[in-house]
Every structure is written in structure tokens, then in C-alpha cells.
Here is the input.
Amino acid sequence: QVQLVESGGGLVQAGGSLRLSCAASTSIFSINTMGWYRQAPGKQRELVATITSRGSTNYADSVKGRFTISRDNAKNTVYLQIDVLGPEDTAVYYCNARRTYSGGTVYNYWGQGTQVTVSS
Here is the structure.
């Protein structure tokens, strides 16, 4: 079992920046992929960015060039740097950990989310 705690959300003016943090209860070396998702009001949850245990990253087209995912293995923490925020970025941001166990079973773990609100 993996527990995740997000922090760093808040109210920001358009054009500003935020850095979200996700602290994991276990070494992120043991997690195949960690990532960030977001869910805007009335919308389905969507993938924002992922980072593997090997450091490979992936981004949604809508955030490429503005969002940066990174990790600090010593702190068991994954970050999401968000630059040039716009109203379209307003959402609850969720941390995700995906882990594959023996036999190929895949489990997803989720944090409680942190609210990001962008004012114009």
C-alpha cells in the first residue's frame, strides 16, 4: 500500500506559477510510475504528466512547455512545476502512483488532491 499526500495548491493570478508536491509513504524506487492528474469542474479526470522510476517523463499536449514533473528520491517526493498558469488550469490536482506486482497485477494509488484556482 502506498499513501500519497499532495500540497502546494492555492489561488494564483493568471500568468503566475505554482509548485505542487506529492510525498509518498514509501521509496519511489519501488513505484513504477508516478504522475499528476487533474479534474476540472464538470470534466473527467485527465492525465497531466508522469515520471517513471528510470526518469522518463510524459506530458499531456495541453501542458507541454509549461509543466515540469520531477522527483527527489531522497525525500520520496514528486513535484509538478506549473508555469504561466491560465484559467484552463483550474482543477483539483491528484498525485498518482502506479505499481506492478508479481503476476503483472497493476495497482493505482491516489492522493486526496490539492485545489489549484487561477484567477484572470
Residues 17 and 83 are 5 Å apart (CA to CA). The chain has a mean pLDDT of 95. The first strand starts at residue 4 and ends at 7. The two ends are 40 Å apart (CA to CA).
